[in-house]
Specification:
This protein is an alpha+beta fold. Helix content is 28%, strand content 18%. It is elongated. This is Aldehyde oxidase/xanthine dehydrogenase first molybdopterin binding domain-containing protein.
């Protein structure tokens, strides 16, 4: 991207990686490097240091994509899910690595480089639809990813891409369905899980929390439970919580 921005062959640009703090997605590191390269191209034989401060980072780094999820399901007389319909509307979740147009400085040059056309990331990992396919056993399920190509601001990766939104939406909806079925939230999840490891993880978390022995919450207090397998192919995770509002 820097070579394209400067109009130079790749053998004329050398990048040396230095370990730093993590960024949990896409921060301004590429842009700071591009700024330094752009200045250095006009001031040869002089060392150039560019350091973005925190307020500059938060003001100019790519934003996390906007997301909207909509879920609908049907229960039978026994309280089991018989139909599932889930839709997610989201932008791209990755603009890195990419051509010069992904760099902030390149977009503001006299001869600017346009932001490249975004493309969705394919399943099984996915982008906005990461973890949109529930791991639960459902006899009829439909999951639709509405990919939004245009946004008024620069966007890119936020840690876990679309998983944070999809897991929150799906698990919140599972709680609503459990309540509609008159079922305990953990028991309702187990009733819709065939994966042995998933069942073991859910059961272990509930046992460690003493879920079945929890007391009736007072006003302003509550309990929560959630489960997911990252990307539906990586680590399993179940979490139980007790929360209260001050």
């Amino acid at each position: 991207a820097i070579c394209e921005m400067l109009g130079m062959p790749q053998d004329k640009v050398r990048c040396i990686h230095v370990e730093g703090s993590g960024c949990y997605g896409h921060n301004g590191a590429d842009d700071a490097a591009a700024d330094a390269a752009l200045i250095a191209s006009s001031l040869p034989d002089r060392p150039i240091r560019v350091q973005w401060m925190r307020e500059q980072e938060h003001g100019w780094e790519p934003y996390g994509p906007a997301m909207i999820a909509k879920a609908r399901a049907s229960l039978d007389s026994a309280g089991h899910i018989v139909d599932w319909d889930y839709g997610i509307w989201s932008n791209t979740h990755s603009m890195r690595p990419g051509p010069a147009g992904c760099l902030l400085a390149a977009q503001h040059m006299a001869k600017s480089f346009p932001l490249p056309e975004p493309e969705p990331l394919p399943q099984p990992e996915g982008g906005g639809d990461r973890n949109a396919i529930p791991l639960y056993t459902l006899p009829s399920a439909r999951v639709t990813h509405h990919f939004l190509r245009q946004m008024p601001v620069r966007i890119s990766a936020l840690r876990s891409l679309g998983a944070h939104m999809n897991v929150f939406a799906i698990e919140s909806f599972m709680d609503e369905l459990a309540q509609a079925a008159g079922s305990d939230p953990v028991a309702f999840r187990l009733a819709h899980l065939d994966d042995p490891r998933a069942r073991d993880v859910v059961t272990a978390a509930a046992d460690e929390f003493h879920w079945s022995a929890r007391s009736t919450p007072e006003s302003g207090h509550g309990y929560g439970f959630a489960f997911a397998r990252y990307k539906n192919l990586a680590a399993y995770c179940a979490v139980a919580m007790q929360v209260h509002v001050d």
